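=== RUN LOG ===
request id: a7f3
mode: sequence -> structure
chains: 1
length: 301
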Amino acid sequence: MSNYFYQNQYVSIIGAGKISYSIANLFLQNKIKILSIISRSKESADKLAAKFKINISSNNYNDLDKNTSIFILAVPDNEIETIAEHLAKQNINFKESLFIHLSGAQDISLLKALKDKGAAIASIHFMQTFPTKEIVDLKSEYVVIETDEDEVFNFLFELSVRFNLKPLKLNSSEKTLYHLSGVFACNFLLSNLYLAELTYKDLSISENIPMFRYMDNIITNTLKNAKENGAANSISGPIVRGDLDTIKKHIEVMQKPEYKNSNIIEMYIVQSEMLLKILEQKNKGLTESQKNIRDYLISIK
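=== RESULT ===
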């Protein structure tokens, strides 16, 4: 393998969505030049290029700067393989190029068409959320590196340290499980917070104080307790107490017409059963009152 991209770190970004703004910022903060932006939408490529004063922006792969040595594929997971195949048909010096995709769920096998041309391939992923095009400062973030070549891993490890990141090696076989853990920690957390917003808005106090301001302490302390003691050791509330009367009142209030299309009862039952299972494993069994809650939840499914 040529070490051209080690010595000549010139980047082009494929894709101009939300994450691309933070990735572009990361490279430019660390004095690595971005030569071109290519996106399916010329308008989105132009906007990203204008934001960072990048000379080339286009929706045509032929416009990629020929001096590029590191290609970042910042595109949706279901487009990675197709775009890699398109790039494999371009006039690129593959043996002196490194191609990196940013998926947390998909492994580097999607870049096979480029590897077959002699290119180095890798994937990097930040366990971070990019809900908008607002720049997320990635300094001090963990980053996982997936590659099948030690030389490429060493290069990306050293580059990450230079960027003030915390690099870790991730095996290709672990990608799906790795991403699943992030979905539980982030996406499903948000579905619970949405349901908290949904129910809180019907309270009279919601006119004076927003849900997140009122619930800030309980949300913050729950996360703090989980970080310090583990999730299983931080459970509180009616499930732990075996308070069946409160559970029944919760179910009753969730039957109001305004919650009909929210699946709130189904979510409540599934998560209550999950808490009971955690308690059963942790405590080597359930109390009689907790068993009564489990039986009740089964009866109303």
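=== NOTES ===
The mean pLDDT is 95.
The longest strand covers residues 120-126.
=== END ===
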